[in-house]
Amino acid sequence: MSVVDRLSWEVLNATADDSESLEQIVPAVCHLVSEANVSAVAAAVSRLEESGLLGRRTAPGELDGEGWFHMTATGRAAWLAAADRYAPTPAD
Fold first, then answer.
1. CA distances from residue 86 to 26, 41, 58, 83 in whole angstroms, order as listed
2. Phi and psi torsions of 71, nearest 5°
3. What are the tens digits of pLDDT across the range 17-52?
4. Structure pTM?
């Protein structure tokens, strides 16, 4: 399986304009991908982070919190490359 499948693309898409927490990513993705759930989205975030497509930022004063995820330059390239396949069309 490619790192950027539909679920992963939507996770990247959720972070396209700014950093997002997992609590923000989950509903954004689950709204668009019917088979998605919290566990699946968290696994996709983890996989994308391990692949270097997502980075993690920790908020000031946060020691062991979940942090905020942002798309890396490599992630943006992968997101753009897969956009023809997964981005919604005007008819969607």
1. 18, 16, 29, 5
2. -75, 130
3. 999 999 999 999 998 888 899 999 999 999 999 999
4. 0.85
What is the per-residue DSSP string for 13-42? HHTSSS-B-HHHHHHHHHHH-TT--HHHHH
CA distance 19 to 57: 8
- Provide the residue ranges of all domains of the chain, joining segments of one domain with +: 6-85
Q: How far is CA 15 from CA 31, 61, 91, in A?
A: 15, 22, 23
* Look-up of token digits 């004063």: 61
Which CATH code is given to the segment(s) 6-85? 1.10.10.10
Q: C-alpha angle with apex 25: 22 to 26, nearest 5 degrees?
A: 85
Closest listed residue to residue 74, CA positions, set 82, 65, 85 = 82
More confident residue, 90 or 21: 21
